[in-house]
Amino acid sequence: MDLFDEQEREAGLQPLAPGAALLRGHARSRGDALVAAVHDIAAASPFRHLVTPGGHRMSVATTSCGTLGWHSDEGGYRYTARDPHTGHPWPALPELFVALARDAAERAGFPGFVPDACLINRYQPGTRLTLHQDRNERDECAPIVSVSLGIPATFLFGGLQRSDPVRRLRLVHGDVVVWGGPSRFVFHGVQPLMHAEHPLTGACRINLTFRRAG
Ligand code: MD3
Ligand code: FE
């Protein structure tokens, strides 16, 4: 084993694909504060089931914080400066979120990442996210940083073509994954969630994705 492998292991960094790395448990010690912040955000901009441009109501519930937030309806997918549900600006990104995203990105080889948007997905048992690409963010060089909280999920990721073979990755409370470089536009999704309970979130999984959208 060479020294670089050893240093990566010590930092808890597992390479997944070029530009993609898993930081197992990286956010675990901040789990309570992260879940509390999500509750505060949802009190101002509630979780809602977005409708896709194709007219399908998503099983996953979503809200956002940051200067931009995520919205979809029959008119398309887009980032907005205001929450269409409340008419108000999205809640601000908590300093804890910014620091966590920046630190994780730097460890994965993307220094200087400053997110301006955080999508928050809430999964209940049985809900899923079908295979898709994220391509509505203006800064294509910036990575996406994902933080898993609550009950486990099986994450799916493939290649740049929808038909490419898919790999499965079990994500548990506190896991952080960074997707940048050649992995920024891979197809990915989440398998239907199994029933489980977590002391901080109950029967639910919360995923934060930090982006440079504007
Ligand atoms: C790889 N969320 O919000 S996070 C999404 O668990 C989304 O809620 C999933 O896909 C979730 O768009 C997956 C991991 C993730 C997020 C974005 C990516 C992986 C990604 C963008 C490009 C490549
Ligand atoms: Fe995605």
CATH topology: Jelly Rolls
Low-pLDDT sequence parts? none
Name of the CATH homologous superfamily = Alpha-ketoglutarate-dependent dioxygenase AlkB-like
Report, as a whole number of angstroms, the end-to-end distance.
Answer: 41 Å
Number of domains: 1
Annotate the secondary structure layout:
Layout: H1 3-10, E1 13-17, E2 20-23, H2 31-44, E3 61-66, E4 69-73, E5 76-80, H3 95-107, E6 117-123, E7 129-132, E8 144-150, E9 153-157, E10 167-171, E11 176-179, E12 188-190, E13 205-211
Fe (iii) ion binds at residues 132, 134, 188.
Q: What key phrases describe this protein's structure?
A:
214 residues, alpha+beta, Jelly Rolls, 7-stranded antiparallel beta sheet, 4-stranded antiparallel beta sheet, 3 helices, binds N-(carboxycarbonyl)-S-(naphthalen-2-ylmethyl)-L-cysteine, Alkylated DNA repair protein AlkB, dioxygenase, broad specificity oxidative DNA demethylase activity, ferrous iron binding, iron
